């Protein structure tokens, strides 16, 4: 699982939504974190759990460069040059949230956006409580199973799985080989093309909303370019299938991590158990659509 995330982050993505946010988060999410970091006192040590390639740290450092940031992630990362070699920013890669290598009460704030819910909360939340100093803050933005982010990705995940289990890929392989052997205009090639189109049509009927998100339509247009050689077509198909496998892993992780009512209640109980008092518990909306759940609070003073 972590290997697919490592490959993803090392492609240079800054957020977990690929090219949808090519630079960084915008809109309601950006505004939310700008308010959070503006309110944190200077010189505070801030830990970002599930940092990815540092999207939240990048926002926070612009708002308040007098904070000290540590980004933690279980994957191998590819940190943007703009975040490298800064005295107030450090990244800890290939390290789980369930066992963080930091001393007790060493952080004044723990943040996470679409990160900590991927961990085992029964193990990661005690770690949050352990490393927070007295009256330290936690600030979490979490995936919600009903959000406008998760719901479309469920459809993409279903389409990706259906694509692999259908006859589409086998029909495409046969057409690629047929084009090389018989040429564009042969009767055999036309039969293979008709079979592929029929298979795609059946898939699209059931998964029209999600299929576009798998990038298969764009890939199909590319691989059917008459100018491509057989070797290039075969290699590109294998690359697409590898990327599709990774997409299925990442989206499965997302769906499994998203909070439904049961997971939400578990989170609340665990926060109480470890003396993490809730100050805010609300949904975040953008353009009338719910995009996540915001839960924040403080560690009880001891």
Protein architecture, described:
There is one protein chain. The protein is an alpha/beta fold and 302 residues long. The chain has two domains: 2-147 and 258-299, Rossmann fold, CATH 3.40.50; 150-254, no CATH class. The protein has ten helices and seven strands. Strand 1, helix 3 (55-63) and strand 2 (68-72) form a beta-alpha-beta unit. The protein is elongated, with a radius of gyration of 23 Å.
**Number of alpha- plus pi-helical segments:** 10
Reported by name, the CATH topology of the largest domain is Rossmann fold
Helix content: 40-55%
The CATH superfamily name of the largest domain is: Vaccinia Virus protein VP39
Written as H for each helix and E for each strand, in order along the chain, the element string is: HHEHEEEHEHHHHHHEE
Give the assembly state of these chains. Answer: single chain
Question: What's the main sheet like?
Answer: 7 strands, mixed
Strand line-up of the largest beta sheet: 3-2-1-4-5-7-6
CATH architecture annotation of the largest domain: 3-Layer(aba) Sandwich
CATH class wording of the largest domain: Alpha Beta
Can you tell me the number of structural domains? Answer: 2
Rg from Cα: 23 Å
Strand content: 15-25%
SS-based class? alpha/beta
What's the overall average pLDDT, rounded?
Answer: 90
Anisotropy-based shape? elongated
Number of β-strand runs:
7
Low-pLDDT parts are 12-24
CA-CA gap between termini: 38 Å
Q: Gist?
A:
This protein is of the alpha/beta class.
Characteristics:
302 residues; alpha/beta; 7-stranded mixed sheet; Rossmann fold; 7 strands; elongated
């Amino acid at each position: 699982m972590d290997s697919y995330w490592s490959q993803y982050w090392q492609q240079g993505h800054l957020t977990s939504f690929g090219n949808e946010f090519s630079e960084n988060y915008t809109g309601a999410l950006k505004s939310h974190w700008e308010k959070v970091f503006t309110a944190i006192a200077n010189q505070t040590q801030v830990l970002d759990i599930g940092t990815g390639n540092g999207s939240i740290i990048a926002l926070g450092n612009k708002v308040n460069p007098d904070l000290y940031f540590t980004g933690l992630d279980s994957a191998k990362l590819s940190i943007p040059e703009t975040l490298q070699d800064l005295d107030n920013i450090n990244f800890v890669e290939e390290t789980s949230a369930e066992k963080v290598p930091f001393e007790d009460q060493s952080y004044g704030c723990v943040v996470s956006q679409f990160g900590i819910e991927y961990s085992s909360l029964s193990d990661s939340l005690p770690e949050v409580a352990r490393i927070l100093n007295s009256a330290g803050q936690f600030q979490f933005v979490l995936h919600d199973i009903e959000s406008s982010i998760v719901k479309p990705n469920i459809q993409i995940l279903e389409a990706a799985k259906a694509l692999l289990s259908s006859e589409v890929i086998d029909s495409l392989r046969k057409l690629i080989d047929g084009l090389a052997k018989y040429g564009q205009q042969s009767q055999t090639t036309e039969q293979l093309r008709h079979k592929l189109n029929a298979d795609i049509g059946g898939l699209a009927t059931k998964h029209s909303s999600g299929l576009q998100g798998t990038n298969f339509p764009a890939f199909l247009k590319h691989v059917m370019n008459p100018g491509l050689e057989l070797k290039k077509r075969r290699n590109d198909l294998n690359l697409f299938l590898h990327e599709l496998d990774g997409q299925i892993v990442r989206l499965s992780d997302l769906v499994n991590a998203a909070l439904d009512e049961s997971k939400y209640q578990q989170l609340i109980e665990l926060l109480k158990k470890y003396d993490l008092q809730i100050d805010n518990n609300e949904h975040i909306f953008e353009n009338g659509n719910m995009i996540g759940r915001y839960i924040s609070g403080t560690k009880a003073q001891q």
